[in-house]
TrEMBL record:
Belongs to the insect chemoreceptor superfamily. Heteromeric odorant receptor channel (TC 1.A.69) family. Its main location: membrane. GO terms for molecular function: odorant binding; olfactory receptor activity. The keyword Magnesium does not apply. This is Odorant receptor. The lineage of its organism: Eukaryota, Metazoa, Ecdysozoa, Arthropoda, Hexapoda. It comes from Glossina brevipalpis. It is a multi-pass membrane protein. Pfam families: 7tm_6. The keyword Transmembrane helix applies. GO terms for cellular component: plasma membrane. Coiled coil: none annotated. The chain crosses the membrane at residues 137-160, 180-200, 274-293. It is found in: Cell membrane.
Length: 403
């Protein structure tokens, strides 16, 4: 029996998953939903893991904050602990928000794979054209997963050397020198590391999957309108041509409405977590860059993380810009649909009037593009990301000057 939710297409076949999403499904029980028909014990185990991970994150955050307070007067030591502390706080908020509402997340995925996903078997050319747009997502995911080397090699070195250090810079509120206490603490560090990396690499991939396939559906909608209009104009008969074209416009408007509603569902699902991501991005980048600057040889994992974070922000910003550009082309789509040639050939003045009113309504309803936002505080776009990176650079310059 498959307990973890496995997305299926409308015909019941298993949907293909990219490797970051597949890894997230297998390693992040906190955020990934379970199947609808999973047994009761699986649901209880899922909730237990969510609660256990929440407690471990709370204890880890508290221990890291103790480290920061202890070294408040030592800027170098402070900068050693700030990056992981900020990353854990961000992961805590994003991961457990997703975990708390993962049933809604599952419904979003179910609707997506049944109604929005562009199947390779039905649209092979569009599907092939879509695939290169996922490469930037895989690049930064690879950088994030490269940091997992740190969570595999370091624990082995610590155990072999007999050291009682932990992976994160932290001061727990108890004595962990005894191996029976130290080993569970080390395992909890490893688990936290895997949860953080799998979340940060997979969530933008999921957002990219939804947005890019939605973009392709808008492209299909435009192509279908053009194709049906062309068929009407190529037909020498003028009988009820305005009525037939009006039915085509009604079908297009209904499809347009369906896609707009799904775009709003994406906004509802990701808005808060995007707000957290973008809000903490500048200070996180500043802290990580400072750590790399002070100790470049000992900060290999941080270097991968920093470039991964920048690539993640750029990719999400590009997704937002893509959605803006795609929906901004919808209103002109109706205006340039060759309606004037339909009117010219139609002899039914009443039907012509109805058609013009319908087109005017469609153009007005889509006069504004759709913006993906972070709780409506900012728009997700490349311009926003560039401002964040510039802000991080300014903070970094200021922080280095204090040293």
């Amino acid at each position: 029996m498959n307990i973890l939710y496995r997305p299926k297409l409308s015909d019941g076949t298993l949907a293909p998953l990219s490797w970051p999403i597949a890894m997230f499904r297998l390693t992040h029980i906190v955020g990934w939903p379970i199947e609808d028909d999973a047994p009761r014990w699986a649901y209880l185990f899922d909730r237990f893991c969510w609660l256990l991970a929440f407690i471990i994150f709370m204890l880890t955050n508290d221990a890291e904050f103790r480290y920061l307070r202890f070294h408040i007067q030592n800027l170098d030591e402070l900068l050693s602990g700030v990056p992981t502390y900020l990353v854990l706080v961000e992961a805590h908020i994003r991961g457990f928000t997703l975990g708390y509402r993962k049933d809604k997340f599952k419904k979003l995925l179910q609707y997506f794979y049944n109604n929005i996903y562009v199947d390779e078997r039905e649209h092979p050319l569009l599907y092939k054209k879509l695939q290169p747009k996922f490469w930037p997502l895989y690049v930064f995911s690879s950088m994030y997963f490269a940091t997992l080397i740190n969570f595999i090699i370091v624990p082995i070195i610590l155990l072999i050397s007999g050291s009682r250090e932990l992976i994160f810079k932290m001061i727990p509120p108890f004595d962990y020198s005894a191996f029976a206490i130290y080993f569970p603490c080390l395992l909890s560090n490893i688990w936290v590391g895997f949860l953080v990396v799998s979340l940060f690499s997979a969530e933008p991939n999921i957002l990219g999957l939804l947005v890019l396939h939605l973009h392709t559906r808008f492209v299909l909608m435009k192509e279908n309108l053009q194709m049906k209009t062309k068929e009407l104009l190529q037909n020498p008969s003028n009988t009820q041509i305005a009525l037939k074209f009006r039915k085509v416009i009604v079908e297009t408007i209904n499809e347009n409405k369906r896609l707009n509603l799904f775009a709003q569902e994406i906004q509802n699902e990701f808005s808060f977590r995007i707000f957290v991501l973008f809000s903490m991005a500048a200070i996180c980048l500043c802290a990580v860059a400072s750590k790399v600057y002070t100790n470049p040889l000992g900060s290999l994992a941080y270097i991968f993380w920093m470039f991964g974070k920048i690539q993640e922000l750029m990719t999400i910003g590009d997704l937002g810009s893509t959605l803006i550009a795609t929906t901004d082309e919808v209103s002109p789509m109706y205006y340039t649909s060759n309606w004037e040639h339909i009117i010219e050939r139609s002899l039914d003045s009443r039907e012509n009037t109805r058609l013009m009113k319908l087109l005017t309504m469609a153009i007005n309803l889509n006069r504004k593009p759709f913006y993906l936002t972070g709780l409506n505080f900012f728009t997700v776009s490349l311009n926003t990301v560039i401002k964040i990176i510039k802000g991080a650079g300014s903070y970094f310059t200021c922080l280095i000057s204090f040293r």
